[in-house]
Structure formats: C-alpha cells, structure tokens
Write the structure tokens for this entry.
Amino acid sequence: VIKDIPCSFLVLIMIILLWRIPSLINAVKNYRRGDDEHQVILEMFGNTLLDIPFVIMGLATLILPYRAFFLVKSLYNVEEDRSDWQKRIIATEYFFVCFGDLLIFSVGVLMLGTVWRAPSYVAYLHYQATRTDTDGKWKHTRAILEGSMTCFGNWLLDIFSFTQIFCILITIVHVPSLIIRTY
C-alpha cells in the first residue's frame, strides 16, 4: 500500500503525457499475479523521462509539414514493431534533417537573391538531385545539401573576389595622386 501511492502519481503523470498510454494498457493486459507491478511502473516512468528530449525533438520536427508526415508514419508503422530506442533514433534523425532543410532553405534564398548565382545554383541542384551514385534513406536531402553548400562556397569566393577587385581598383585610382604628392 505504501508503494501504491507514489506509483499512482507516476501513472497519473504518464497518462497526462499521453504517449505512454499504449504501454500502460499493454502492461495491464499482460499482468500476471506475482509480477512486481511497482517495478514495471518505475521502468515505464524511467522510459517516459528518457523520452522527453526525443518528444521535444519530434515536436520541433512538426514545424516542417513535409517531414512531420513521414516522421509520424515512421514512428507508428503498424507493419514494423519498433522498440523505444528505434523510435528515439528516428526522432533524432528527423530533427537533425530538419536543420539541414533549414540550411538548404536559407542558402537557397541567398543564392536566388543574388542574381549572378541563381542560374548555376538551380542547375547544380538539378544535377545533385538526379545523381545516381548515392544511396540511403536521406540521399536526396544529402545531395541537395551538398549542392547548396558547394554553391554557397562559390558565393563566398565570389564575395572575396569582388572585395579584392574593389581594393585593387581603389589602389589603382589613388596611385596617381600618391605619386604626385610625393614629388
């Protein structure tokens, strides 16, 4: 009875957090006399606490709707019974891929905003997206991120080159006045 009161609070917290309700129902269905139900509740509560950062990552992924659909589909695939660790890994993968998507988007806006790089950016992204030498779950995202970063590097080189040309032109313009002043 003394253990029941803290365990009831833990079960209440798990019910409020919602995502452990199926595990609670499964634990009640599979309960056999003699099992240590308090130990089962403590393990489930420990898993609930461990899940919190991954749930936050999953909620952050919901910002991008095209990723959110596939995240939910991957997590709750009926055909595959995934363990808690597999679900945590999936949530982490999608979270970090969303960072890549935001990087691709920001570089894309920059490249398309600077008119001289827009045609080469679009052409290089098309080339990267149609490559067949990459494989894996995130092959298109990886290829587009690689293309975006390559074009961003070229853009930085353009800015550096324009800065050098500007400094050289200023020097050339001011050299005659410097020569005249010295005499």
User: Anything to note?
Assistant: The mean pLDDT is 84. The radius of gyration is 28 Å.
